[in-house]
Structures are given as C-alpha cells and as structure tokens.
Amino acid sequence: MDRQRAQDTIEKLRRQLEEHNYRYYVMDDPAISDTEYDQLMQRLIALEEEHPDLVTPDSPSQRVGGEPLPFFEKVEHAIPMLSLGNAFSFEQLKEFDQRIRKTTERESIDYVCELKIDGLAVSIRYEEGFMVRGATRGDGRVGENITSNLKTIRSLPLRLKEPVTLEVRGEAFLPKKEFERINRVKEERGEVPFANPRNAAAGSLRQLDPKLAAERALDAFLYGVGEIKGKEVPTTHTASLEMLTRLGLKVNPDRVTVKGIDDVMDYVDYWREHRLDLGYEIDGIVIKVDDLALREELGSTAKSPRWAIAYKFPAEEGVTVLRDIVINV
Ligand code: NAD
Q: Which residues form the active site (predicted)?
C-alpha cells in the first residue's frame, strides 16, 4: 500500500478504535465484539509496522485502556498497570518464545500459564495487612479509586494473614450465573441488559453507590504483585502466587508452571476445548515468564511487558457477537 493510502487508512482505523475504546472503557457499553475489535487493532498494528514513521504516541496501538471517569478520585499507580501483547496463533506463541530465548540467551524458558479472566483489572493496596485502597487500571498510569465498591467483594480479605504492606493486582469479574441473574432482573424492570459479564462487572464497580456493587456477587482472582514491603520478595512468579495464597488472597488454582513453549501450547489446547465448562468467562490464556530476574532483563514497552503474552481464543459459537461490522476500511 502506498504511503498516502496507508496514512488515510491508519487515520480511519484510529478514529474507529478511539470510539470503540470510549464505549468499552468509559461507557462500559461496547458496540462491537472483542474479536471484531481485535481485528481492527491487528490491521492498524500491521500498517504501523509497514510504516513505522507514521506511529504516534497517541495511537490506540500505543495506549493502555481508557481515561478514568471524572467523578472518581484519581489514583496514580506507583508501578504502571500495563496491558498485554496478544497472540492469535501458535506461530505467534513460538515467535514470542524465540524472542525471549534470543534476548536472554537461554535454551528453554519456564512459563506460568494462567486463565485470562474476562473482567476488570484492579489494584489493591494493603498496609500493615489492612486493605486501604482499591483502584481500576484506568489508562495504566492513573486509575479510579473504587475502594468502597471493591470492599463489597466477599472473597477479597479486608485483612491479610500477615501484617504486610503490599500492592496486589488481579481481575474482578462476575460469575456467569450472577450475570444471568442480573440481566433477568434488568429485563423484568424493562432496563437494557448488559452486553456481557465483563461490562456488567465494570459497570458495577465503576458507579458511585457501593450498595449497587454489594447487590451483585462480584468475585476476584489475584495474579500479580505490584509492590511489597516487610516480606522477602519471591524470585519466581510461581512462588509469588503461593505467597498471595498464604496471605489469604484468592489465586486461581487452574494454572500451571511448565518448561518450554510446547507445554504452553498443550495447556492452551486443553482450555480451548474446555473454556465453556467454567463458571466464569475467559477470553484466552496468559503466558508469563516465571523467573522474576529474567523479567527485569526483558523489561516492557510503553504498553505491555515483554515477558508476557495473552493468547486470545478464536471467536466461537455460544460466545456473544454483538453485531456484524465491515472490517475492510
Ligand atoms: P487484554 O484484554 O488483551 O489483556 C490485558 C488484561 O488482561 C489485563 O489488564 C488484565 O485485566 C487481564 N487479565 C486477565 N487475566 C489475567 C491474568 N491471569 N494475568 C494477567 N492479566 C490478566 O488487554 P486490555 O488492554 O485490557 O484490553 C484490550 C482488549 O479489550 C481487546 O483486545 C478487546 O478484546 C477488548 N476491547 C474491546 C472493545 C470493544 O469495543 N469490543 C474495545 C476495547 C477493548
């Protein structure tokens, strides 16, 4: 594609993606399915890779999430909450593994595979063991203070089993049964139902009245440590998840630590078959380097860490597709 046409298409894709970001992240009301959104984004990334001089820092390909809502107090994250790079094929997973082995000059890498919960990323701060603050990811740098709403999640302890100061990260979500119950109630009241559990969870946590959040049985899995004081820092991700469990936090038991990318692909295959058996929605598998020193070495781009990737499941029957759109722009 010549430069002028590429520039026009890039501009058009950016405007579309910005509009969809606004509806998804700010309004909690998407107009297209995630698969359709991912296709638009892949198209933009491919064109930007072909024409690197056209990449701008404000392009949706370079940015995390959406702006925090103005009526919430803003919370600046001590360590940015990034997004994840995506893989849509095993080929792309192998390339991810090759890049890491090349950079770190290792023969084989240990990975942790986790379910990618389709919810809302949150950060929770405990001081001397007590929950003091909870926030959304927002644009990755600044999130929204949603402490009162997060305190209504019964599986999130208000006090840890040890007096540690810790910022922990995870995903708040709505179990499928609860999503269906809420939508039944909405329909009975003549209200517009939520498009999917992710938007219902985000909509419940990002409103001002904590009573509304308390009426909905939200849940949360924790999957990462942001900052830690008063405790020895683990050297692997596996050990840090075990530490979170010992502290009384809910970590998803459906995870594995494996050696090399072949076992990662087996795990992905298993969950591609079984994802619909779970009581909550997942949209993929997150693959993370286990060795935390290696992660430091690999670092991050402005948008995502180089030591992790999200394998996204292909769209399937039984998974909500909101409406058809024409991807060819
Ligand atoms: P992402 O969904 O590709 O991945 C990053 C997120 O995964 C993290 O922030 C975290 O919230 C989540 N996650 C779940 N389980 C995890 C685990 N075990 N470990 C680590 N992280 C885990 O990236 P994103 O920036 O949150 O969102 C982009 C995606 O959102 C798009 O690819 C699309 O699917 C969807 N989206 C859809 C629309 C739409 O209009 N339909 C608009 C914007 C975004």
A: 116 (n6-amp-lysine intermediate)
